[in-house]
Amino acid sequence: MARRGPRVRDLRLPRRPGRAARALVLLFGLLVTGGLYVLLVPQARHAAAEGGPPPSTGQRLYETNCMSCHGADLRGIPRRGPGIAGTGEAAVYFQVSTGRMPRARNSGVAQRKPPVRELDPKTAEGRANLLALGAYVQARGGGPRLPAEHGGALVGRDTAEGGQLFRANCATCHNFTGRGGPMPGRKFAPWLRESGPEQLYTAMLTGPQDMPVFGDRDLTPGQKKDIIGYVLSVRGQRNAPGGFDLGEIGPVTEGFSAFAVGLATLFFIAVWLGARL
Question: What backbone torsions phi and psi does residue 148 show, to the nearest 5 degrees?
């Protein structure tokens, strides 16, 4: 009887699953993940799916245009945007209606640009959306509110008083006719030629960037309206008929020009007299 040799183990690797098996495993994994997501989804989303109240217009606009920089709680996000809790609907109106917000990048001084189309106060829909956004921020953090009047109702009639108040409180930065100019620290006071009554009023209420805040204790609503009336009255007028306007920045350039012209005149008179003697 012949002896059997020792058994030799089969060292071949097991067969890999085919493409069909891998596809079935992937499909099973997706089904399990989807089922767990449906079971564990937050209750708020369930309520929305079941016909719960949708987000308000102001909330939707805030989440679309503002939340990525200012945060869901209006407290800001480091290195992206400051907190805006407490700035109020007045600040929202000024910043958004002038196109300074939303900003393309968080650096330098925000410059005026055309506003987002759906928040453009020149259209009825855009104004309604802008007011809804401001109301949402106001309800979440409080702050200065928009005036009850708008448009021509914010333009005061006492332009003489408005001019005195403007020269005392605003001309240092915006010059005597609102043309603006350079400031320390590579900053620039804007020209007021495109600002409407509501933008001028809300700027005084909120003090954007380096501008001081002029609350109702600093300037009464009537005084603010007179300042607006003055700014609008000097906008586009010909302040120097028959001559140069010298930048419309007041007595500094006028005095220097008079000094330079006078000195040059005296020099030529002295030369002429010296030549005749």
Answer: -65, -35
- Short-list 159, 131, 146, 151, CA closest to 222: 159
148-237, CATH topology level: Cytochrome Bc1 Complex; Chain D, domain 2 (1.10.760)
Question: Tens digit of pLDDT for each residue in 203-225?
Answer: 999 999 889 999 999 999 999 99
For tokens 């369930």, the residue is 46
Q: Which two tokens stand for residue 154?
A: 């914010």
DSSP-assigned beta bridge partners for residue 188:
182
Cβ neighbors of 16 (< 8 A, separation 6 or more) are none
Q: What is the pLDDT along the chain (277 residues), one digit of tens a residue?
A: 555 555 555 555 555 556 766 777 777 777 777 666 555 544 434 333 444 456 789 999 999 999 999 999 999 999 889 999 999 999 999 999 999 999 877 666 788 999 999 999 999 999 999 999 999 999 999 999 999 999 999 999 999 999 999 999 999 899 888 888 878 877 888 989 899 999 999 999 999 988 999 999 999 999 999 999 999 998 866 555 545 555 555 555 667 777 788 888 888 888 888 887 7
Asked if 146 contacts 154 with a C-beta cutoff of 8 angstroms, the reply is no
> Which parts of the chain fold into alpha helices (H)?
19-40, 43-49, 57-65, 67-70, 88-97, 124-141, 159-169, 171-174, 197-206, 221-234, 251-276
CATH superfamily for domain 55-146: Cytochrome c-like domain (1.10.760.10)
Instruction: Give the Cα separation of 14 and 199 in Å (integer).
Output: 76
55-146 and 148-237 in the same fold: yes
Q: Could you state, in order of their start, the residue ranges of all structural domains in the chain?
A: 55-146, 148-237
Which pTM was predicted? 0.69
